[in-house]
Amino acid sequence: MCKKDSTRKIYNKDELNNLLSNATGTNMSFFYREPCVVNDTVVNDTGKICYEFITEYLLEHLYLFSSTSIPKVARKSIGNCQYIQESHDGLLSAKQRERIQKDEVVFAMSLLGSELGDLGKVIDYQTPIGDGKFGAVDLLAYNKGVLSIVELKREDSLEPMLRAILEICTYFWQLNKGEELKNELKEKPEYKDIKKVQMAVLVFKNSFQYNQYKYQESTSLRQLANELGVNIFTFEDVKYIENEKYMVTDITEKPPHDLYHPKTI
User: Fold this and answer.
1) Pick from 154, 199, 196, 153: nearest CA to 172
2) Is residue 8 scored above 90 in pLDDT?
3) pLDDT over 50 at 98, yes or no
4) Band of residue 241 on the pLDDT scale cut at 50, 70, 90
5) Burial level of 85, CB count in 10 A (0-12/13-18/19+)?
6) Alpha-carbon distance 242 to 108, whole Å?
7) What pairing do the DSSP bridges indicate for beta strands 115-116 and 245-246?
8) Residue 51 and residue 43: Cα distance in Å, rounded?
9) CA–CA separation, 231 vs 123, rounded Å?
10) What is the mean pLDDT of residues 209-220?
11) pTM to 2 decimals?
């Protein structure tokens, strides 16, 4: 496991390789939380930022993203065994409205019922994966037979895009590639036509994550997203109003067809 103070620790190549080998081990369920994933120092002997080095490491170890390394979380670990919480009404108090731009959970709440362009309509927020030690999917959105599990980032978030990609991919596997959610929702008439579950990261245009994904000189981040099947979406405009219609665009960059050989996950 990475040490708690490792967000600013400076590594050399061999040290970081050994650390990653130990941190990923046989279980990747909480790797996305490791401080080394957001480390922005330069790795000695490489000239690469730590999270760029980790991205390339993961591209060489794609087998880590599987039901063996990220096992399904049992539904019984959720109190009422339901993913969609009836208590989630999206109603914000006056104090919550004041925090809507600074609190990711409150922002997610405000989006319930909103139309998010290519992603469709938001049907739930903070959907639990399991009990307290597991995370929660920021948003669920539905559009024409496609259910999206969405990792949402605030406009001022400085977390690397790598962290967001790893987090939503982890949830996807913990939900048995989304089948658990899909099966629950298909019991409702309005969602009986769900055919596909997709992973998505939703960021703000010109945010830190957006610029990393679009303009980072190395192509490794875009390649990792493609290999894992994670789609990247961006807010084109945000009004911070509940139950609003937003312009959201899929900016996922696919390599030329002859260069793109996605791994089956």
Assistant:
1) 199
2) no
3) yes
4) low
5) middle
6) 10
7) parallel
8) 9
9) 19
10) 90
11) 0.89
With residue 58 as reference, give the H or E element that holds it: helix 50-59
Q: Which residue has the tokens 């009986």?
A: 192
| Phi, psi for 246 (deg, rounded to 5) | -115, 150
Cβ-based neighbours of 188, under 8 Å, separated by 6 or more:
none
Give the bridge partners for 204, in sequence order.
Answer: 235
Please give the biggest Cα pair distance in the chain.
57
Task: Tell me if 198 sits within 8 A of 151, measured CB to CB.
Answer: no
Dist. CA 251–CA 246, nearest whole Å: 15
- Give the DSSP per-residue string, 91-155: PPPHHHHHTTTT-HHHHHHHTTT-EEGGG-EEEEEEEE-SSTTS-EEEEEEEETTEEEEEEE--T
Q: Which amino acid is at 222?
A: R
Q: What gap in Å lies between CA 186 and CA 190, rounded to an integer?
A: 8
Pick the closest to residue 161 from 32, 247, 1 (CA basis).
32
* Contact (Cβ atoms closer than 8 angstroms) between residue 65 and residue 226: no
User: Taking Cα atoms as reference points, which of 218, 181, 211, 221 lies closest to residue 46?
Assistant: 218
Distance of CA 174 to the CA centre of its chain: 13
| Residues belonging to the chain | 265
From the list 22, 107, 55, 5, the residue with the least C-alpha distance to 224 is: 55
Helical packing angle, 220-228 and 50-59, nearest 10°? 40
Both tokens of residue 1?
A: 């496991």
Return the closest-CA partner of residue 103 out of 57, 35, 156: 156
What is each CA distance from 73 to 15, 47, 62, in whole angstroms? 32, 38, 21
| Across 165-177, average pLDDT | 96
Query: Of 142, 138, 110, 106, whose CA–CA distance to 125 is shortest?
Result: 138
